[in-house]
Amino acid sequence: MGEFDLIARFFKRPVQRAALGVGDDCALLLPRPDTHIAISTDMLVSGRHFFPETDPMRLGHKSLAVNLSDLAACGAQPLAFTLALSLPGVDEPWLAAFAQGLFALADAHGCELIGGDTTAGPLNICITVFGEVPVLAGRSQALLRSGARPGDDLYVSGTLGEARLALDALLGKINLPAEALAAARLRLEQPTPRVALGLALRGVASAALDVSDGMLGDLGHILQSSGVGATVDADAATELIAFSPFYIRAAGQFGIKLSEDQWRTLALSGGDDYELLFTAPAHVREAVAQASRSSQTPVTRIGQIETQQGLRLTNRQGQPLANTYASFDHFA
Amino acid sequence: MGEFDLIARFFKRPVQRAALGVGDDCALLLPRPDTHIAISTDMLVSGRHFFPETDPMRLGHKSLAVNLSDLAACGAQPLAFTLALSLPGVDEPWLAAFAQGLFALADAHGCELIGGDTTAGPLNICITVFGEVPVLAGRSQALLRSGARPGDDLYVSGTLGEARLALDALLGKINLPAEALAAARLRLEQPTPRVALGLALRGVASAALDVSDGMLGDLGHILQSSGVGATVDADAATELIAFSPFYIRAAGQFGIKLSEDQWRTLALSGGDDYELLFTAPAHVREAVAQASRSSQTPVTRIGQIETQQGLRLTNRQGQPLANTYASFDHFA
To answer: Which positions bind Mg(2+) 2 (chains A, B) (predicted)?
Structure first.
């Protein structure tokens, strides 16, 4: 099977909203009037971002999910994406499964594949995603990292640390029973981009980003962009995993025993969570709760934005904790 | 140097036309009204698309050039691009040179870097580029592959085959004197995207694409998309290299001796040319000549679009030639 047959067979589908899709030198999009095009790109490298033997259907899902998560963090409505794929060879069952996982998530978000590139080489998946954000009265409705203000509440969606728990188990660092691993592994390999929550938070949240490298490290980007500091309740964040139904089941049924600090490390710096971390003024707490309900996405208040620069950690009782929870860096 | 320092040091620059550039979850573009956004993505893999030891400044240039070439083929005005980079490690002189070559070409075309991703892994460069094409009275001005009509002339810009000549010399398949190699190598490593010609051909050309995998193979895409056939004067195409000042110098001064068929193979299926291959009705020949002059880009008529399906080759005298000039396929 040649390069063009491969594209035609696995990746060419009828055009939906785009003016021109896969198959010409460029794709063409006609944006709506008074709309920002939100653009993000993520590259996934085999052996770095995923194990080479990862289920290709899940990998197809995750490749798009991490990009949709960036749109979610901006409050953008997904529109389209391009896919560049470097493949060691043509493995038809692998490609069919990859495409199935990819398009299932794309279709769920009305996000169409409009172009791409296919080449031979070490397995590498690079997706660039496009979304729409309305501009109202000259003002973009996009959620940025720079809008956090002293006094704002700090929230996180869903749970933290389960992806890292699965990774540590797969790397043999933690012993996890098979059923517990299967549950945590879904979070690692098939994360849910919080698109509906991001849309519901437009006009409510003051700043947002998605947690990919570890919650505290990613929070640092909001603090730096906004010129503010924060105090985070480490226990509130940690309980998202330690007291989650998953953990209770795991600890009770499977006898997983991790120290308090191990649970904190997973939650605070685990990475690969693809949850939204966002801030909002205290007077819109009911609006945040409404956004959570309407998007059917749990959110938890885990801290406070402050004038004083820097990041402070406390336990549930407000006592200070040392911050030893480093974030992931590809080159550190 | 960590990932974020690397981005800040080499790739973050003040925002120009974008509403939001590098550093948030998404970049934001506000398109002009009645404008198509043209989008293309190309992935360059070390050891596949370039030698690992390629001069990084030229590689930075080429990584963007091959993408701008796709915009040129659509008649799109370059606007912005994203860069995803997988690097084996942080080599500061390499990164500085790569960024210098990249931004020199970007600045020459007013095309700004608005976002990206950086990761550790085998060297891989994935750029997604954005351009603008006006929509006049509901009709896109984009040049597509599907517009060729029987009776149209077939043209190619610049010269063909020099990039492949350099590649064959670097691979040791052809013996090329150092000075001749240096000249051909510039065409391989630092191709010129024909952006000005593409813009000048809007409303003139009936179909266009850029030659990347070999001229005859790429012509096949126009024929297939347009549902037409063509006759190509192989000698007219081959003389672009065989009678070029470069070749005359090379043959005269350096005694390069290739057979007629070797020259034809270079010109007809060499690849990596990044020239525009386009069609236009015979009655707009003067407009094509004017587009060539205004863009200061030579164009040569090398054939004719016909109703009869398929691709026919002739020599200068119109006698049929067998087509043994296969195009490049990453998986063939």
So the answer is: 42, 70
Interface check A331 vs B, CB under 8 A: yes
Amino acid at B51: F
Which residues of chain A does B115 touch, with a Cβ-Cβ cutoff of 8 Å? 39-41
Give the residue with greater pLDDT, B330 vs B48: B48
Smallest CA–CA distance, residue B45 to chain A, in Å, is 6
Beta-carbon contacts of residue A11 (< 8 Å; ≥ 6 apart): A22, A83, A99, A113, A116, A118
pLDDT tens readout for residues B230-266: 999 998 888 887 656 556 555 666 667 777 788 888 8
> Do residue B127 and residue B158 come from a single domain?
no
Please check whether residue B331 lies inside any domain of the structure: no
- The reply to whether B24 sits in an annotated binding site is no
Q: Which of A6-20, B5-19, B39-53, B246-260 has the highest mean pLDDT?
A: B39-53
Number of H helices, E strands in chain B: 11, 13
Provide the domain limits for residue A20: 3-139
Q: Are residues A132 and A199 in the same domain?
A: no
Look at chain A and report how many structural domains it folds into: 2
ipTM: 0.89
Instruction: List the single residue in A28, A124, A140 with the smallest CB-CB distance to B28.
Output: A140
Neighbours of B189 (CB within 10 A): 23
* Residue A326 belongs to some domain of the structure: no
Domain identity same for B30 and B49: yes
- The answer, yes or no, to whether residue B17 has pLDDT greater than 90, is no
Q: Are residues B71 and B206 in the same domain?
A: no
Please state the rounded mean pLDDT for residues A323-329: 69
Q: Read off the CATH number of the domain in which B249 is found.
A: 3.90.650.10
Structural domain contains residue B215? yes
Confidence of residue B212 (pLDDT cuts 50, 70, 90): very high
> Which B residues 29-88 touch A at CB under 8 Å?
29-31, 33, 35-43, 45-49, 70-71, 73-74, 76, 82-87
Query: Residue A29 class from Cβ within 10 Å (0-12 exposed, 13-18 middle, 19+ buried)?
Result: buried
CB pairs under 8 A between A and B: 239
A196 touches chain B (CB under 8 A): no
| Residues B129, B113 share a domain | yes
Residue type, B241: I
